Protein: Alanine--tRNA ligase
Organism: Sphingomonas liriopis
Amino acid sequence: MTSTNDIRRGFLDYFASQGHAIVPSAPLVPQNDPTLMFVNAGMVPFKNVFTGLESRPYVTATSSQKCVRAGGKHNDLDNVGYTARHHTFFEMLGNFSFGDYFKEQAIHHAWTLLTDVWGIPAEKLTATVYHTDDEAFGLWTKYLPEERIIRIATKDNFWAMGDSGPCGPCSEIFYDHGDHIFGGPPGSPDEDGDRFVEIWNLVFMQYEQDANAIVGELPKKSIDTGMGLERVAAVLQGVHDNYDTDTFKALIAASTSLTGTDAEGPRRASHRVIADHLRSSGFLVADGVLPANEGRGYVLRRIMRRAMRHAHLLGAKEPLMHRLVPALVAEMGAAYPELVRAQPLIEATLRQEETQFRKTLDKGLKLLDEATAGMVEGATLAGETAFRLYDTFGFPYDLTEDALRERGLSVDRAGFDAAMAEQKRAARAAWKGSGAKASDDLWFDIAEQSGSTEFIGYSVDVGEAEVV
Ligand code: ATP
Ligand code: MG
Ligand code: MG
Ligand code: MG
């Protein structure tokens, strides 16, 4: 079996052999883009190279980029534990051409690596193209029968850096895991199933956009691709589910052994959430993010606390997450030395957060049980109760949602937002009542605009640019 570490290496080696510079992953906190919460695609560190603002000593590059999708435009947090293919933290393998090769070579490289180098049977692959992209359609006919090249008219197959700047059609490659799994090909009514899994997205940066309208062709057409390492590892290891790959099996083995539970039935999702959130927490702390009540730190706190509730569900009587860090470092420390360096900090941070959260977790869960006793499937929890759980017991909104999901209950989001707004209003009134000057109003406004309230953690949509 090829290990995930070997697959990462194999990808980078293939593109290096084709003249690409191997570029190490950038940190998860974006260095060149204040509008983005976390790096969420391989192209992010190269944005300025694509627009021409920055030049580098190479025209083609390859990387395995750490990504987090747990907030903003790409938020996969709610999928984790419940789909076979989503993580909050994952690695995006990519090859990039900055005005060098274009569509034909990009498709050729993808096909050669998947089928020749890695030996994936051609009949397992399907490609999508943007509906008007006859050029890409034509290029794919060299490799695939026409019925497995699917024209898609939605935004899924058209990429743009933002309202202005480079944009262009994309072509996604799907792997068919077989008809024993529910799901239909892309573009079909059942496409959201897990049978056809998108493994690789090829973006053809072709046009220049201004205020959302295409204004011309780019002088230097470019390529940006992204492939989920965990998804291709599942394919190459002959499993359907990312959580059955070597890396995740090792992490789940650690949590089953430390909790003395198996990963069957209702415990399956818990172990998956714990393994996934261990990775995102560990990598975020290693890149300098610490739990906080606002901004990036609040996204991290939500992730950590959600994992901690699942540890509690599994019956862990003591803080668990920090004891899993050695398994994470054993799996991923060689590829990411920052994890080894930060190990003591990751452990201490997880331990402290879990110790603190445990003080209120039990009481909060009890309140939640009482509030939902007698509620039947399909019912909705009052927003005010969710707000009390947040305010008094430190339950992030999505933790409450996650806790109710297993029982088919939902939360009244609007009611929660209203309770939050009311608390802010009251705080503001109290502030005014203390004889403060009118300029304090301004302070509140600035605080809200700059997003420095605890609220930003989960409502953040900072208008980040669309990425791969
Ligand atoms: P999906 O439709 O499955 O959510 P996507 O279209 O949002 O994927 P892209 O933005 O095209 O994904 O990212 C490029 C590649 O990164 C995908 O083809 C996939 O292999 C991988 N990927 C995207 N999101 C995740 C995730 N949350 N966890 C693991 N891999 C991911
Ligand atoms: Mg997605
Ligand atoms: Mg997709
Ligand atoms: Mg995609």
Observations:
- The chain has a mean pLDDT of 91.
- The two ends are 29 Å apart (CA to CA).
- The longest strand covers residues 213-228.
- The CA atoms of residues 7 and 233 lie 7 Å apart.
